[in-house]
Amino acid sequence: MIVCKFGGTSVGDAAAIERTADIVRGRLARQPVVVVSALAGTTNALLEIASQTSGGQFIVAIRGIEALRARHLAVAEELLGTGPDAHEVAAELSMLFDELAHLGEALTVLGDVSPRSLDAVAAYGERLSSPIVAAAFAQRGIPATWVDARTVMVTDKAHGRARPQPDAIAERAREHLLPLVRAGRVPVLGGYIGATREGVTTTLGRGGSDYSAALVGAALDCEGIEIWTDVDGMLTADPRVIPGAGLIAHIRFDEAAELASFGAKVLHPSTIAPAVQRNIPVFIYNSHRPQAAGTRITFDAPRREVRAIAGRANVVLVNVKSSAMLGTPGVVRGIFSVFERFKLSVDVIATSEVSVSVTLDADLHLEDVLNELRTFGDVTVERGRGIVAVVGSGLGGHTPTMARALSALGELRVHMCSLSASAINLTLIVDGDQVHEAMRRLHRAFFEEDA
Ligand code: ASP
Ligand code: MG
């Protein structure tokens, strides 16, 4: 059994859904369970509609709903033609859109959208896309059965970012999905949405369909999870900075997480954690180029000294320096409790006996934080810095690699450097305007020279 998850661009229009059907047809022997996102752009449009209703712009909101109605009906018609199946789906879509319009009206009267109502509105994206995809599959010879994701994906009540309940999901998946798969059917369900035990609709947070796929895969103990998107996989660097960046064939989960923290947008590893922790491999594939190799993410992978180069500008370096730290336990804890109180996440840390240096996102408002830090010692702030990371799980303690990284930087100034004992990355703080140049030099040294 495998889970195939198709993102918004893989179900964005009739042609994309057609390709998706071909992909699934080619995998029937592996007993796929299909998880789909909303048609590309729909979730954004729905959230916009919700905010328009609460802002009293009912006419604008209704126009938005009608545009979505027309788009969904057009896609359904293009895929299904005009036979009886097509009528059934069109009727169902129309009913959902009527409901959505009523909901919009009610929210306009209330003049306020609660997180619960926002989830109810946002959930229409996947509630609409999944029956279209299921019907299109069925018409193309795939024995698809639509399943309401809300009967499987049990969550708590934290609307907007509801937390899934894995035990309940496993139970529901065995009850609602497994018998279908055993009977040779292909369940098709929407990602991103769920419901509380009481049946109130919830969502898992933006981009939550990957999370749904991982949860279903973990619940059914699948052999693999395929995330179908519109890029070939994870790359050795951001291709906007390094056009020659190459595909990473196999990456460890912790390395992927590290890259995501640098804004690698392919997928957020925390969303696939439920699968990876159970040793279920996750594959990223391009639905526009299904023959491409893709990237495999697993808990473990052969260690490689350097797997990728990442970077980010717009970083502030904060140094706290005090001789009082010398031999005094608890100072570091005190300093970090300040960050905790202000709910600031620190990226890179380096310490010496008398100083602690950390980096923070430059967009944060830091005045109050700095004032509190001053109770621990002299505080200096270096703005306009950037982070460059050499990511690779085999890096720890491998001196030649570290030497190569530093020498690749040549005369570029390094303000701080961090390598943890369980190192999966060597992190260098450079001038913000040199981040791209540093990335290019490092990429050249590790991937373009003799590699
Ligand atoms: N449709 C949802 C979103 O756009 C969930 C997803 O696509 O993962 O956030
Ligand atoms: Mg998406």
Shape: globular
Major sheet details = 8 strands, mixed
Strand content: 15-25%
Mean pLDDT: 93
The stretches of 5 or more residues where confidence is low (pLDDT under 50) are none
Query: What ligand species are in this complex?
Result: aspartic acid, magnesium ion
Describe this structure in words.
By secondary structure, this protein is an alpha/beta fold. It has two domains: 2-229, Carbamate kinase (3-Layer(aba) Sandwich); 308-448, VC0802-like. It has helices spanning 14-25, 42-54, 58-80, 84-110, 115-122, 124-139, 166-176, 178-182, 209-219, 253-261, 273-276, 331-341, 367-373, 399-408, 435-448, and strands spanning 2-6, 32-36, 144-146, 186-190, 193-195, 201-203, 224-229, 250-252, 282-286, 295-298, 308-321, 349-352, 355-361, 378-391, 414-419, 425-431. The protein has an eight-stranded mixed sheet, with helices on both faces. A hairpin with an 8-residue loop joins strand 9 and strand 10. Helix 7 crosses helix 9 (209-219). It binds aspartic acid and magnesium ion (MG). Residues 7-8, 37-38, 43, 125, 191-192, 206-209 line the site of aspartic acid.
